[in-house]
Amino acid sequence: MTADRDHPISIVIADDQSLVRAGLKVILDREFDLLVVGEAANGAEAVDQVARLSPDVILMDVQMPVLDGLDATRRILATSRSRVLMLTTFDEDEYIFQALQAGASGFLLKDCPTTQLVGAIRTVVAGDALLDPSIMRRLMGVFTEALRPATGVPEGLRDLTGRELEVLGFVARGLSNAEIATQLFVEESTVKTHVGHILMKLHLRDRVQAVVLAYETGFVAIGE
Fold it and tell me: How many domains does the chain have?
């Protein structure tokens, strides 16, 4: 899935509140490049919808009956290349950690601005990570409290080249490919290639997982 598309981004909305689903559908269908192709009232329905429709993105609530959003995300990503964007009113750390560990590409609160939601969908389809800034700050703060920065290169990152480690550091601090290119005085396409190699070598799905790994290993610490 890339930014250059000849068809709308297909979306499945999974939320147990019908009014929420209806509201999101109205908002998203107004966008020329977005199309809601399915809805699910629980996690089990979401899994079925993805298997049947193969959407680009699933907007996934966390707490739903039958099967919650976290378990649904794990099942979906075990067999699908669809992107999951967690959208919930619950912003407790435990949900954030579990969602990212399940492989979600992003996490937004339901009260985020419409423009932020629309932008988030486009961002995750383009292969980038998306975390609400307030969530990112809290997430990284918890990692910093729990872990000390590693001395040298952590064992799990030793397959990366020096340049790839440098790029990973910038990714972990939330810089875009364009911003990293400016920092390194290289072309944006070169940064994109480095990011692709990082994800491949570390067996990661997307940038969110790379950010989490960088902090989990202590490779990057808050304030660096």
Answer: 2
